[in-house]
What we know:
Layout: E1 13-16, E2 19-23, E3 28-33, E4 38-41, H1 49-58, E5 65-67, H2 79-85, E6 90-94, H3 97-101, H4 106-123, E7 143-145, E8 148-152, E9 157-163, E10 170-175, E11 180-184, E12 189-191, E13 195-197, H5 204-217, E14 221-224, E15 230-231, H6 233-255, H7 260-271, H8 281-297
Parallel strand pairs: 4-5, 5-6, 6-7, 11-14
Antiparallel strand pairs: 1-2, 2-3, 3-4, 8-9, 9-10, 10-11, 12-13, 14-15
Helix pairs in contact: 5-6, 6-8, 7-8
Amino acid sequence: MKDHYIPENKFPIEIDRNIFILGNYFFNLFLIIGNRHSALFEVGISAVVDTVINQLELLDIDPDFIISSHPHSDHITGLPGLAQRYPKARIVSAAGAKEFIEHPKAGPLLFKEDIFMSKSLAIHNIKPGRPSLEKIPNLAGSMVVHDKQSIDLGRITLDLIKIKGHSPGNLIGVLNEKRILFCSDSLGFHFPGRGYLPLFFTHADSYLSTLDFIKEFNPSIICPAHQGPLSGKAAATGIQESLDITLNTIKNIKLSTLSGKTLARDIFKKSYKDEFALYTVDNIKNCAALIVKRAKESKINFS
């Protein structure tokens, strides 16, 4: 991790003209500035809200759109703080996100994860700017993307596309003119220099279809939500590496004679380190179990 770590004081980072990465190494938010409007893609966690606000003030930008990529804890718990600071901003989410976070089991898990992630950042000398999440993020009244929604920012258009495979209510963002793609977790969890962990939590085959879409788009810059963007040759290489690892993961699980519990335990042991240790043990164990379950459900025939 130390070879790829980006210090917090390096942010905001301009990755293309009028496109900035905000937040920190672990939680990336992307600001797209048009001639008339600006959009913030990703909202992060509560611990990064004040850092992001300071970065936006440094750039002298109040975002007109705040876009939640999906309702997992590390992509939604920063929303209340950002929405409070920028009350005129239009909140954008995908169909299914509101229902996900309003499920009775969701609230306690969101609170637990947000507290743990805040403490984990403090271990890395990134001081949380505010207390952890106190209430469930409110998506009532948000602009809901059911399939695809284009937002004209002024001489640049951000296309939001609802995709499947990783999470309910999942969006990716596309700037066709610049061939830049904001993929959130749809490329998997990136361990820079060490590969990817595929994150097909809802449907493995749909997750692969999303990866195929990303590969066909052939982005010049691809922007995951963690550990920084990839550009040029690194973007193409990263997409192919993620595809290969995902297919091999599904194949190895489907063809294995080991029990599901054993397979999940092996995935947890291999992945719960470095950047992934910012999340609770229970969360990552559940992720590992979902990976095994969805792989076994895959319709791909490897025989």
